[in-house]
C-alpha cells in the first residue's frame, strides 16, 4: 500500500497514518522549497487596478489570478478584458466545454491570463507560468503553497504575488466560524490563522512557509519581499495625527477610501455631498500616494487607534486610545508603508544573462510551430531551453545538443529552423 499527498502539514501526515492504520511505514517527504518563486505580499488597495498594472508590467508572461468566488472571477475577468488583457475566467459554474477550452487555450499560450477559483489548477501541465496572483486569501498555507507551485515549473524565475486586505481576512474568518461542527471550525480557524501569520510576518516569508511544513531552516531566502525590502520603522506620529484629525473633522462619516480622498484633497461626488471638501484637513496629505495612506490607516486599525463600524458601511471611528496620539502625549512608530513602487515589485525580472530580443524571436517561432501542429508550445521547447539558446546562440547541431532539453529527436524535428533563426539574428546584429 502507498499513501500519497500533495502538500500536507505534520498534523495531516499523522492523520493519514492513523486513518490507514499503517504500522511503522517508510515515510518520504520531499523538499517544500521552490527557490525560483519569489514570494511577494503587498497591501491590497484598489486591487483590480493593482492586478492590471502588474500584468502590464509582466508583458507577455502567462499567469493565474486566484479569487475566492465565482462572482469575483467573472467581475475581475470582465474588468481586465475591458482594459485589453488577453484573459479568461475558469470556475465550476461554467460548462465543461468552456472550461476545457480555457485550459487548452492557456496551455497553448493562446490565453495569457486565467482568472480562476481553486477549481483551476489540478493537473495543469504548463511549465512556463511566470506568476500566480492571490487576489483574495486562500484558507490555508497548504492551499497557498499548492497554488503558487503552479508557477515556474521550468525552473526559471517566477513570482507569487499575494494582495492582502484585512477585510478579506475578516470575511473568511466569519464564514469559517459559521460552520456547525465546532471541532472542525476550530481546526480551520487555526489553519487560517497560520496564513494570517504568514501575511503579517516581519521575517523571511520562505522561512515561515518551510517551518510550517516542518522543513526547518534558519537561512533567509533572499527572494521574498521581506528579504529584498526589509521592514523599517519610522516616527509616524505626524502622519497618524493627520489621519485621526481627518476622521474627527468629518465626524467619523467615511470609510478608508473616503478618508484618503479627503486627506489627498480629492473632491469626489461623495466628498462634496458631505461638504468634506470644506474641512480643515482637506488636502493635508496630498503629497503622499493613496497607497501610503492606506498602509498607515491599516496599521492604525491593527493597533487599535481606529475601528471600522461595519453597521455604518465600514466608517472609520476613533477609539479612546487615539486621544493620546492626537494630543501628542506619546510618539508612534509604524512600519514604513510598502508601496507598489517599492523595489520588490521591479527587482530581478529573472535571468539577465541571455539575449532578451533573441529569446522573444525564438518564442514567436515556437508559437508558430506549435500552432501549426496544434500542440502546446512547451512540448517543443520549454522556456528554460529557449533561454539557453538565447544565451549560448549555438551555430551547429553539436552545439544544439549541448543545450538542456534538446536531444536527437527534437534536434531532428526542430533544430534546423531554430538554428536558421539564430544565425539570421546574429547576421542582422
Keywords:
3 domains; Arc Repressor Mutant, subunit A; alpha/beta; 429 residues; 46% helix
Task: Characterise the protein shown here.
This protein has 429 residues and is α/β, with parallel strands linked by helices. It has 3 domains: 31-228, 3-Layer(aba) Sandwich (Rossmann fold); 233-337, Arc Repressor Mutant, subunit A (Orthogonal Bundle), CATH 1.10.10.10; 356-428, HRDC domain (DNA polymerase, domain 1, Orthogonal Bundle). It has helices at residues 10-19, 47-57, 70-82, 96-107, 141-148, 166-177, 182-200, 205-212, 225-228, 237-249, 256-263, 269-273, 290-302, 322-326, 356-373, 377-380, 383-392, 397-401, 408-428; strands spanning 37-43, 62-66, 87-90, 113-116, 129-134, 158-164, 233-235, 306-309, 315-318, 333-335. It has a 6-stranded parallel beta sheet, with helices on both faces. The protein is globular, with a radius of gyration of 25 Å.
Summed up, what is this model?
The protein is of the alpha/beta class and 429 residues long. It is built from 19 helices and 10 strands.
Amino acid at each position: 500500500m502507498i499513501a500519497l499527498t500533495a502538500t500536507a502539514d505534520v498534523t495531516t501526515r499523522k492523520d493519514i497514518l492513523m486513518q490507514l492504520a499503517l504500522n511503522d511505514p517508510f515515510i518520504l517527504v520531499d523538499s517544500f522549497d521552490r527557490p525560483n518563486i519569489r514570494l511577494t505580499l503587498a497591501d491590497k488597495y484598489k486591487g483590480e487596478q493593482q492586478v492590471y498594472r502588474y500584468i502590464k508590467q509582466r508583458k507577455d508572461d502567462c499567469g493565474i489570478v486566484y479569487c475566492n468566488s465565482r462572482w469575483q472571477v467573472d467581475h475581475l475577468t470582465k474588468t481586465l478584458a475591458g482594459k485589453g488583457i488577453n484573459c479568461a475566467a475558469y470556475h465550476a459554474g461554467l460548462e465543461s466545454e468552456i472550461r476545457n477550452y480555457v485550459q487548452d487555450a492557456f496551455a497553448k499560450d493562446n490565453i495569457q491570463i486565467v482568472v480562476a477559483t481553486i477549481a483551476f489548477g489540478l493537473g495543469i501541465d504548463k511549465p512556463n507560468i511566470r506568476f500566480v496572483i492571490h487576489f483574495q486569501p486562500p484558507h490555508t498555507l497548504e492551499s497557498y503553497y499548492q497554488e503558487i507551485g503552479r508557477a515556474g515549473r521550468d525552473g526559471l524565475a517566477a513570482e507569487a504575488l499575494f494582495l492582502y486586505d484585512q477585510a478579506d481576512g475578516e470575511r473568511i474568518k466569519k464564514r469559517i466560524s459559521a460552520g456547525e461542527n465546532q471541532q472542525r471550525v476550530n481546526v480551520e480557524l487555526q489553519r487560517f490563522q497560520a496564513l494570517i501569520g504568514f501575511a503579517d510576518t516581519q521575517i523571511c516569508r520562505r522561512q515561515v512557509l518551510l517551518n510550517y511544513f516542518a522543513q526547518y531552516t534558519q537561512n533567509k531566502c533572499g527572494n521574498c519581499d521581506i528579504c529584498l525590502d526589509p521592514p523599517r520603522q519610522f516616527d509616524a506620529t505626524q502622519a497618524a495625527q493627520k489621519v485621526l484629525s481627518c476622521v474627527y473633522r468629518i465626524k467619523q462619516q467615511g470609510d478608508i477610501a473616503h478618508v484618503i480622498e479627503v486627506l489627498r484633497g480629492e473632491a469626489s461626488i461623495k466628498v462634496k455631498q458631505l461638504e468634506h471638501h470644506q474641512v480643515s484637513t482637506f488636502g493635508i496629505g496630498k503629497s503622499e500616494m493613496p497607497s501610503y495612506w492606506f498602509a498607515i490607516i491599516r496599521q492604525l486599525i491593527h493597533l487599535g487607534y481606529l475601528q471600522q463600524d461595519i453597521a455604518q458601511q465600514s466608517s472609520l471611528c476613533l477609539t479612546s486610545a487615539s486621544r493620546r496620539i492626537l494630543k501628542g502625549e506619546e510618539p508612534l512608530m509604524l512600519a514604513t508603508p510598502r508601496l507598489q513602487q517599492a523595489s520588490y515589485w521591479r527587482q530581478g525580472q529573472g535571468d539577465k544573462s541571455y539575449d532578451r530580443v533573441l529569446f522573444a524571436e525564438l518564442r514567436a517561432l515556437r508559437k508558430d510551430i506549435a500552432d501549426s501542429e496544434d500542440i502546446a508550445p512547451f512540448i517543443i521547447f520549454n522556456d528554460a531551453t529557449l533561454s539557453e539558446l538565447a544565451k549560448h546562440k549555438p551555430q551547429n547541431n553539436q552545439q544544439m545538443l549541448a543545450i538542456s532539453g534538446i536531444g536527437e529527436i527534437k534536434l531532428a524535428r526542430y533544430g534546423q529552423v531554430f538554428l536558421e533563426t539564430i544565425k539570421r539574428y546574429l547576421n542582422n546584429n
